[in-house]
Every structure is written in C-alpha cells, then in structure tokens.
C-alpha cells in the first residue's frame, strides 16, 4: 500500500527490453537510501519489486501486462518518474490508500495554467468515472489528488505550485498519457452494488 505522496522524482537510467517484458533501472538518490531487495516501490503509481540495487540505481522488472496497461511502456532513458516507497505500519497517512495497481490510462485533455497553479482535465473510460466523485480521491501517476469536477468521460484536478514542481505532472501537456488508480473504497462499493 502507498499514500500517493511522491517522495522523489527520479529518472530512468536504463531500459532493457526482453521480448514483451522490460528491466527498468531508475536513478533514485533519495528512495534508494532505505531500500532492500524485494521491496515494493511505486513508479508513476505502479507497484514494482526491487530486483537489483547498485548504489542509488534501482532495477525493476515489468511484464507485458504492466507495460500494456500503464505508461511505463512509453518511458525512455532520461524520462522522469514519480517514486514512493510502500507505506509502513504506524507511518503518518497524508494522502489516501493507493494500492499501486493501475486501473487505466488517461489522456491530458486540457491544461489551464493560472499563475503558478494549474487545472488539468483528463479523458478516461466511462467505467472509471463511475468510481469517482467530486472532492473524492484519485491517484494520477501515483500522486494522490482531490477530484474537482467529474463528468461522464472526464475529470479535473487543480495542482498547487509544489505538486507541479516536485512531480512529473508539472511537465505534462495536452495529449500526454498518465496512469490512473481510482479510489480503493469506491471500487468495493461499486462491486457490492453491481450484482
């Protein structure tokens, strides 16, 4: 489990494609300080397992399903990524419960900058907006955010200057693809309501 509070914006150091899978090495000076083999790290909101540690470079393996359902398959060397270590029992909970299991991809539909702030609109498949509510939570590329508006196939969030600076969302533009994880509790409620 994660909180959606990004600890570090790392960078892709190396990608090793192996058929439909990939080894992903990430330069993570901060996150790598307190990590062990087998630990779970969220990369752009996708939970992956540390399989190799070389100083401050962490290596993960992503299979075809992960590369297909997330934006990790679009990464290139040098791409920035949001990183978060798994939540520890007793740790302060500042965001919301994020499983690290990406539900779908969304596309940036609009970006409206207002001084140092920005409002983003995202297109998303309708089955996922059913798990969203205004003032509820959503994880975008692993970032815990509050939903502002939710329509049939779109939703919006407003970003403060800090979020724009320390996460990958600051560089996102119209047409870019992001990972979406809807609220865990909304999924369970929807499952119970649908026979």
Topology, pairings included?
Blueprint: E1 8-18, E2 21-27, E3 40-43, E4 46-54, E5 57-62, H1 64-69, E6 80-85, E7 104-114, E8 117-123, H2 126-129, E9 137-140, E10 143-146, E11 154-159, H3 161-166, E12 177-182, H4 184-193
Antiparallel strand pairs: 1-2, 1-6, 2-5, 3-4, 3-6, 4-5, 7-8, 7-12, 8-11, 9-10, 9-12
Q: Short summary of the structure?
A:
With 195 residues, the protein is mainly beta.
Written overview of the protein:
It is a single chain. By secondary structure, this protein is mainly beta. The protein folds into two domains: 8-85, Elongation Factor Tu (Ef-tu), domain 3 (Beta Barrel), CATH 2.40.30; 104-193, Beta Barrel (Elongation Factor Tu (Ef-tu), domain 3), CATH 2.40.30. It has four helices and twelve strands, in the order E-E-E-E-E-H-E-E-E-H-E-E-E-H-E-H. The protein has helices at 64-69, 126-129, 161-166, 184-193; strands spanning 8-18, 21-27, 40-43, 46-54, 57-62, 80-85, 104-114, 117-123, 137-140, 143-146, 154-159, 177-182. The strands form two sheets. Strands 1-2-5-4-3-6 form a six-stranded antiparallel beta barrel. Strands 10-9-12-7-8-11 form a six-stranded antiparallel sheet. A hairpin with a 2-residue loop joins strand 1 (8-18) and strand 2. The longest helix has 10 residues, at 184-193.
Characteristic key phrases:
195 residues; mainly beta; Elongation Factor Tu (Ef-tu), domain 3; six-stranded antiparallel β-barrel; six-stranded antiparallel beta sheet; 4 helices; globular
């Amino acid at each position: 489990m994660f909180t959606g509070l990004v600890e570090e914006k790392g960078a892709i150091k190396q990608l090793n494609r192996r058929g439909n899978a990939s080894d992903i090495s990430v330069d993570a000076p901060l996150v790598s300080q307190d990590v062990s083999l087998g630990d779970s790290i969220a990369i752009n909101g996708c939970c992956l397992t540390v399989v190799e540690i070389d100083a401050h470079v962490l290596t993960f393996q992503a299979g075809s399903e992960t590369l297909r359902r997330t934006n990790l398959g679009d990464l290139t060397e040098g791409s920035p990524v949001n990183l978060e270590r798994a939540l520890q029992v007793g740790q302060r909970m500042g965001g919301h419960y994020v499983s690290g299991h990406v539900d779908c991809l969304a596309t940036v539909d609009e970006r409206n900058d207002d001084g140092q702030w920005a409002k983003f609109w995202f297109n998303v498949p309708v089955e996922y907006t059913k798990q969203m509510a205004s003032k509820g939570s959503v994880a975008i590329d692993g970032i815990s955010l509050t939903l502002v508006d939710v329509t049939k196939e779109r939703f919006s969030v407003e970003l403060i200057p800090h979020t724009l600076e320390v996460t990958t969302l600051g560089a996102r533009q119209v047409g870019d693809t992001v990972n979406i994880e809807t609220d865990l509790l909304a999924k369970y409620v929807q499952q119970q309501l649908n026979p």
